[in-house]
Specification:
mainly alpha, single chain
Length: 67
């Protein structure tokens, strides 16, 4: 039979392991940006978002400089 001390020790080890995993996941690697390049190619919804963002930027630009 497993003692309470052994169970707690195992749980503490698992918690430490999870903390280590999370800490390393929160720190992006040097070249992580490369994973996202081209991620949304051929994505119609993303293209709609980009088109709308461009429209908003152009409207803001015209409003800021009405000349």
């Amino acid at each position: 039979m497993v003692t309470i001390e052994e169970r707690v020790a195992k749980l503490e080890g698992l918690v430490d392991e999870l903390r280590d995993r999370r800490a390393s996941a929160d720190t992006p690697g040097r070249d992580d940006w490369r994973d996202t390049v081209g991620m949304f190619a051929d994505d119609d919804v993303m293209q709609e978002i980009l088109d709308e963002a461009q429209r908003i930027r152009e409207a803001d630009r015209r409003q800021a400089d009405p000349c």
